[in-house]
Amino acid sequence: MREQSSDALFGRRFARHLGRLVRMYWMSRDGRWAALLLAGAIALELGTVYGTFLLSDAERRIMDALQANQSTAFLSAIGFFAGVTGGFVLVSAYRIYLRQLVEIRWRRGETADYLDRWMSERAYCQMHLHGDELDNPDQRIAEDIRDFVGSALGLSLSLLAAVATLVSFGGLLWRLSGDWALPLESGYVHVPGVLMWVALLYAVVSTWLTHVVGRRLVGLNVDRLRYEADFRYALMRFRDNVEVVTLSHGADLERRGALARFQNVMRNWWQLIAAQRRLTVFTGVIGQANAVVPLLIAAPGFFAGLMTLGAVVQIRFAYGQVSGALNWFVYAYQEIARWRANVERLSTFTEVIDATAADLERSRIQVVPGETPTLRLTNLRLEAPTGATLIDTVNASVAAGERVAITGPSGTGKTVLLRAIAGIWPFGTGRIDVPARARMLFVPQRPYLPLGSLRVAVSYPAPEGTFTDDRIRDVLEALGLGRLTTRLDETEPSWAQQLSPNEQQRLGIARVLLNVPDWVFLDKATSALDDDMEKRVYALLAERLPRATVISIVHRPEVAAYHTRRWTIAPTDHGTASLQAA
Q: The CATH number of the domain where 574 resides is what?
């Protein structure tokens, strides 16, 4: 489902994706309120068209008064022009203001919807199952939604203005050139509304040629968004792992990798500006040539005394407005191409999310909330995404309050087992009964440290303010992190770089002590601690969470001794692993 660099701007697939993106917000409750603002923006957009029509008439009055040498009429025309200009400027300003109000509300709605779908329990499966198709989801949510909404409003309102302009000035242009006689060698030929026909023919030819010249922009803009995001992600990865990279003397390798990604940006950029140059030159030629057409056609009538200078000015103005409306596609082509790329990337994102949901619904591992306070694995077999069996059929149970150590060689599927219990590993068969109302907390080997203050980091996943500062300080001191008790309000760019692996793991345990879950799953969560601190951690868990069930993945026999039971996952002769409960 990677983006398709299609030459076609529109099609059935595009219409389906666009319809989904539009319905996502405009069928919501907030969308109905935003529709009122949009109606106001549309009214003001049409008001600017009417204002432009009045300005053309004001210019005709001014030029006619000058030609007739009538100072009173000239001053009157200037006053009319000033009044129309003032109203036009006011309407234009509020037209932009209302459009921006609609834009931010629409973006807020779309962003909230994508965040709900992306930042969910399915996120791990989405990246694991479709990671090659889902590059840079952060850019799609932050930038593609912004650009999609902005372009959708801008293009639709400008198209509406173009249609209104065509209707209003088209009638004027038809009337002004309605009885023109074109001089030929054999006499005169009367062509009703000749300038309208000229503008229409010019627009059809130029629109077709513009699409031929600029159609490569669609695929190039899709690639640009991906390459730019890949390059930025490489820089973010270096920033977040600068200590590890520096200690490994890998900065040079990371720099070469970033430069290689930037080469993709450069290559795409040269292709993009070359395509834009051709399109810009072409549309520039079209625009300049078109500006002369009405003068060439009106000049014979003016020289013959059949029309005034003001009429010529108004004809040229009206022709420019009609021609601009008919050539809307020509001048909007580059933005349409960028907008098309945004729609493609957002639609691909949606397809991946929907595909993951379908994969999870088809999962043969059933995670069922049970009424008993027991974790039960029934005929559970865990598989890799390729279908290869990792752990053969497992039948085991853990009662509330027990402490179970999971041991076994690396690579036998211990972490996968915890992921299956958490409901984020859909590959395999069997049933997992989990206590329905129990609060579960999974602690990985490297705890996630969110952005924000230290208070936010230690309280996670509970929101800031859930625990008093005295309680937080007590837990930190109990885990030997007393030096951090005075830094709760500090906001570091990344606490992951400020704290050692040892301190990060103790911070992860502090979360357990603060959140007081009923079930605690530790995935090598004390592997960076020394023996004394590790013993201290399990003593604190027993002391402060006496009723909690603790299931730990461990590699050292000393840690297993802190548990009352043991599950051993061992390789078999068939290349899989089996679980033995004791």
A: 3.40.50.300
